[in-house]
Amino acid sequence: MDFLKIAENRYTAKKYDPSKKIKEKIIAELKTIVRLSPSSINSQPWHFTFVSEDKTKSALAKASFFNASKILDASHLVVFGAISSVKKFEEQIAENIPAGAIGYYNTYLKPKGEQEIKKWFSQQVYLSVGFFLSACAAMGIDATPMEGIEAHEYDAILKNPKYNTLVAVAIGYRDASDANQPSMKSKSRLDLDVIVSSI
C-alpha cells in the first residue's frame, strides 16, 4: 500500500476491540521507530512510556476524561513526555550531538529563556507524535492521539520526574462497530486549494 492510501485509510479510532492485543514483536518495532523520530538539531528532548499493565492503564484512564474507555480497551497506551529540566537537556546534548548543533542552540534558542526553550521541547515531541501515528497506520495499527488527559496526574502515576507528560496515544485494533472509521464516516478535510499553495 502506498502512503497516500495509508493516509486515506488512517483515522482516529474511537472504539477498540479489547480482545485484540498488539504482539510484543510489533511493540518492539514501534519502540525502535519512535526512537528514530526526527527533531530539530537531533535534540531528542523526550521520553516515551509504553503502558500495557492493567493497573497502570486503569489509573491513567481515570485521569483521561472522556478518553477513559479508549485507554481501557486499547492494547497499549503510549505516553509522550518532554524533558522537564533545561539544565538536564543541556547536559544531554553536550554528550550526544555535534558542536555545531550545540552552537545553534546556544546562539538562537538559549537566549530566549526557559519558557520558550520548553515550548521548543514540546514542538519536538509533537514531531514524534506525528511520526508515530504514521508508523502505526503503515503497520495496520489503529491509534487515538489524546490531549484530553490530566497531564499532572499522569506524571504522578508514572513517577518519572525527569519528563512532563504532553500527550498520550492509545493503540490497538478497532472494534468492528467503530462508527468513526472511513468505511462508515467520510473523512472531512479542508479543500486542497484552501490549505496548499505553490509559488
Helices and strands in order, then pairings?
Elements: H1 3-9, H2 24-35, E1 46-51, H3 54-62, H4 68-73, E2 76-83, H5 86-96, H6 99-109, H7 114-138, E3 142-146, H8 151-158, E4 163-172, H9 192-195
Antiparallel strand pairs: 1-2, 2-4, 3-4
Note down, in words, how this protein is organized.
The chain is an alpha+beta fold and 199 residues long. It has a single domain (3-195), classed as NADH Oxidase (3-Layer(aba) Sandwich). The chain has nine helices and four strands. A four-stranded antiparallel sheet has the order 1-2-4-3, sandwiched between helices. The mean pLDDT is 97. Helix content is 47%, strand content 15%.
Question: Which labels suit this protein?
Answer:
199 residues; alpha+beta; NADH Oxidase; four-stranded antiparallel β-sheet; 9 helices; 4 strands
Structural class: alpha+beta
Helical content band: 40-55%
Radius of gyration, in angstroms, nearest whole number: 18 Å
Low-confidence stretches: none
The overall number of domains is: 1
What is the average per-residue confidence, as pLDDT, rounded to a whole number?
Answer: 97
CATH class: Alpha Beta
Name the beta content range.
5-15%
Instruction: Kindly report how far apart the N and C termini lie.
Output: 31 Å
Order of helices and strands: HHEHHEHHHEHEH
What gross morphology would you assign?
Answer: globular
Number of strands: 4
Which strand order spans the largest sheet, edge to edge or round the barrel?
Answer: 1-2-4-3
Oligomer: single chain
The number of distinct helices, counting runs of at least 4 residues, comes to 9
Tell me the CATH topology. NADH Oxidase
